[in-house]
Amino acid sequence: MLRRLAAISYDLFLLLAVLFVATALILPFNRGEAFTPDQFFYPLYLFVVSFVFYGWFWTHGGQTLGLRAWKLKVLTFDRQPISWGQALLRFVAALFSWLPLALGFVWILFDRNRRGWHDHFSKTAVFFEDR
Questions:
Q1: CA end-to-end span of the chain, whole Å?
Q2: In Å, what is the CA distance from 121 to each residue of 12, 67, 103, 117?
Q3: pTM of the entire predicted model
Q4: How far apart are CA 50 and CA 94, in angstroms?
Q5: Residue 119, exposed/middle/buried by CB under 10 A (0-12, 13-18, 19+)?
Q6: 7 Cβ partners below 8 Å, 6+ apart?
Q7: pLDDT band at 131; cut points 50, 70, 90
Q8: 81-98 pLDDT per residue, tens
Q9: Which residues contact 103 (CB under 8 A, 6 or more apart)?
């Protein structure tokens, strides 16, 4: 569990940098002004950028930078690479796993296979890398 949390922390810093760059790229289209709460496009844009960030790494080798640093890998239950569809399910389910006091992640402590809600929903899992 601690390795997963460490990997999540690493990836959060990298994702924040990606989101800063993504914001800088579209800021000129908003006349250089801050986005307002009534502009629904901006949060949707950040959601898509975040998904592409995680989805790309999960579907191309199963490892984000944080997962690689902690020798973890996201794969299907039978240790195969995940599809973009599974990546989307995993991403959305992981967001919901955080909502009720991170209970979807706390579930890992009680699950016999050490899987969270997002793992079960997307039929994926985090495995220790065999190197």
A1: 20
A2: 22, 20, 14, 6
A3: 0.90
A4: 12
A5: buried
A6: 64, 66, 67, 69, 70, 72
A7: low
A8: 999 999 999 999 999 999
A9: 97, 117
